[in-house]
Amino acid sequence: MAQLTRRRLLGAAAALPLATPALAAYPNQAVRVIVPWNAGGLADVVIRAMAPAMSARLGQAVVIENRPGANGAVGTQAVARAAPDGHTLILANAETHAINPLIYPRLPYDPVADFMPVTLFARGPFVLLTRPGFGTADLDAFLARVRADPGRVSFGSWGIGSTSHLAMEALAKRAGLRMLHVPYTGAAPASTALIAGQIDAMFLNAGPAEAVARDGKVRILGVGAPARIPLLPDTPTLAELGMPVNAGNWFGLLGSARMPAAAAERLAAVAAEGVEDPAVREVFRAQAALPVTTSPDAMRSFIAENRASWAEVLRDLNIRLE
User: Fold this and answer.
1) Tens-digit pLDDT profile for residues 22-56
2) Hey, what's the signal peptide range on this chain (predicted)?
């Protein structure tokens, strides 16, 4: 994945008013970022951390609007239909632009034709959690418990076809498990249900998971990443435990199709500066989010590659929705 240096991005941003006089007034109003998930999840937390830093650099307010529903499709469709002036953006992730097009045959937006890529800005690994009192000290004990009670141990996710859902399905397939899926409308309500003991397990972003595990409200069994992460240095990866399941998500910004390419480039430059802001870095660190910035073209390539990768996973799991 091509990654722009800060110097190149700053240079590109400085040159835009000269190369494109019509962009001199951009943005001329608040920039609205639609988060297609409930408030409180990792996507919401990281973009709210980014908003003040981006606003200071754009000279206009960056307003966050939560519009959840249909595995991210409701908010994403709203941006696809928005005016193509760069003032309405979607906080995209694997669900909205890689997975949904593969599992929903009547998706109300085209993930390629309806959008202008702007930039990635973060990636984050998942961890496998169990509820308090579930009585399993490690992954082996968890697997044994599920095998002993097939179809009765429940797991939550933030929607059918979400990355959290598919991560558990991948683990179940690899380990030969049968579990009961309970979908929620977002990561926050799903994790709340886990803490309350209403479901038995789930995959959750590592940052929020570490916060509740620290208080003894849940137990973390393993990290779904290729290597251990700094926030949980003593927690083994699932691969170390004999179950090599990679689980995580990415977060990026896109505008509606036909938005000015120069506006996308400027926003990419602003986001690249924003992730270097000390306050943003601290939030990312606490959330186990890895800052990642790209050019619009590199983001377009990344999404295409990610969709192809998920297509292989979904074929293997045989998941498709009507």
Assistant:
1) 455 899 999 999 999 888 888 999 999 999 999 99
2) 1-24
Q: pLDDT confidence of 21, banded at 50, 70, 90?
A: very low
Alpha helices in 107-260 (DSSP H): 139-148, 163-175, 187-195, 206-214
On whether the CB atoms of residues 186 and 40 are closer than 8 A, the answer is: yes
pLDDT in tens, 153-207: 999 998 888 999 999 999 999 999 999 999 998 888 999 999 999 999 999 999 9
Classify strands 154-157 and 201-205 as parallel, antiparallel or unpaired. Answer: parallel
The model's pTM is 0.83
Q: Are residues 110 and 131 both part of a single domain?
A: no
Print the domain residue range for 201.
Answer: 126-223
Q: Return all residues near 157 (Cβ < 8 A) that are at least 6 apart.
A: 164, 165, 168, 181, 182, 183, 184, 190, 202, 203
Distance between CA 118 and CA 315 in Å, rounded? Answer: 29
Which amino acid, one-letter code, is at 238?
L
Do residues 11 and 115 both lie within one domain? yes
DSSP letters spanning 26-85: -SSSPEEEEESS-TTSHHHHHHHHHHHHHHHHHTS-EEEEE---GGGHHHHHHHHTS-SS
In a domain, 243, yes or no: no
Burial annotation 216-252 (CB, 10 A radius, 16+ → b, else e): ebbbbbbbbbeeebebbeebebbbebebebbbbbbbb
Contact 189, 206 (CB under 8 A): no
